[in-house]
Design a protein that fits this description.
two-stranded antiparallel ribbon, about 130 residues, elongated
Length: about 130
């Protein structure tokens, strides 16, 4: 009974937290910075100070990729960072809510695929690091 109700409840909470963190384009909450950049300026060995650079935000980064014509990178990062991050908890919730309607083999295949494809969620982090560098 604990597993029957706690896992779907935790998945639902994770989905709502994901919506709150990622948001939807147009929401003010969806523009939380993935990374904030600061540059330390030095002139002749004398530190001048820190300069704030534009923060890296997922939706603005995707927009910049699209405007630059880098469509493949925008689609990969958008589908992995946004699409798959929402699809994974929804698939897991379906497996938890409909165990009698889905065969054990199908549920196992979905869970295995969710585990293997979950690594693609890191593409957002990797691309953010590459853009910063």
């Amino acid at each position: 009974i604990l597993v029957r109700y706690c896992i779907p409840l935790m998945l639902t909470a994770a989905l709502f937290l994901l919506i709150a963190a990622r948001g939807v384009p147009g929401w003010s909450a969806s523009y939380i910075a993935s990374a904030k950049l600061q540059a330390l300026l030095t002139l002749d060995g004398v530190e001048v100070g820190f300069v704030e650079l534009d923060p890296i935000v997922l939706y603005s980064t995707l927009h910049d990729y699209w405007q630059a014509g880098v469509y493949a990178l925008a689609l990969v990062q958008g589908s992995c960072a946004i699409g798959w991050s929402f699809a994974k908890p929804i698939l897991l919730l379906v497996c938890c809510w409909l165990p009698s309607r889905l065969s054990a083999r199908f549920r196992g295949a979905v869970l295995l695929a969710a585990d293997m494809l979950g690594k693609w969620l890191l593409i957002d982090f990797v691309l953010t690091v590459l853009v910063v560098l």
